[in-house]
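Lab channel / #folding
Pinned by the channel admin:
"Please post every new chain as: sequence first, then the structure tokens as a reply. Keep commentary short and put observations after the output so the thread stays searchable."

First post following the new format, from NK:
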Amino acid sequence: MGGLLGDYKYALAMFGLQFASAGLTLLSRAAFVRGTSPRVFIVYRQAIATLFVAPIAYFTRRKSSGSSIGLRSFALIFLLSLIGVTINQNIFFEGLFLSSSSMASAMTNLVPAITFVMASIAGLEKVNIRSSRSIAKIVGTVICVGGAVSMAMLKGPKLLNSELPQANSAFGSGGKNWLLGCLCLFGSTCCWSLWLILQVPLSISYPDPVSLSAWMCFLATIQSAVLPFFLEKNADAWILHSKLELISVFFAGVLGSGLSFFVQAWVVSQKGPLFSAMFNPLSTVIVTILATAFLHEEIYTGSLIGALGVVIGLYVVLWGKAKEHVKIEEDADPNLPTVNILTDES
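Reply from TO:
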């Protein structure tokens, strides 16, 4: 029985993480529609995450001989906090409020494709048009981007909740603000991809992921607090008026920015990044179903087709990356048996 659990514990952990991500998306949008300021929400979220992660980082660092943080490492951490947390979350939650929960969740599936483009420009990814692996990554990226454009531009007729008038739906899609919300979500995806790219030099200069997470949450709290200080004229924006808002903030801080980091890092360290990335579309499915049932969000034909394209493109990119990893392992150890279905090149 223990062996069976050992085989499935990583998948169960990722399933749980995707459900938590879906819950965070739905709770956040519900809180925003109720009147919570997205900018204030982010400050509270990062502050709670800091209080959650910092003690763990402190005690784990005491038991290990971790390297001290230098000026270069601190500058990189500050930059990553600014791009990957402060800017990323502010435009993400703005896009979430202006569009819909399902759109926000689907857009996150663009991260592998956009990261591949950025990594290719930076020279971290090799592109060979004669290789089936590179062709798969290029085609998958095009399909992902095409699907995202379809979601934003081609809404089409309603499939579900078509009987609900727009005025009667408190969680409606925002009409003319839909495109602006999609652009914000796309910008957030680009920030997250850039954050992943910048992790490469940072992991070399400061190889302590737990302490790094604590520093990023702390710096992001300070950075995020600057925006509402200038943009929120009403002091009441800092007050959480309902249990829903309080639950959303704690859920986002503890699970969204705290516990999820440890689960993600554990799974990636044991099974690799591809295994983790393959579960991303599950959150989109969960959010779409729950948002339709509980938040009365409309589902459109164009959005559904576009989301399907994003998911298909994602798996095409991941397929190309999987073949690439197998090829690298075989080149490193020529005694490994060849698996033709994975190493075939055209």
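NK: The chain has 13 helices and two strands.
TO: also worth noting, The longest helix spans residues 2-33.
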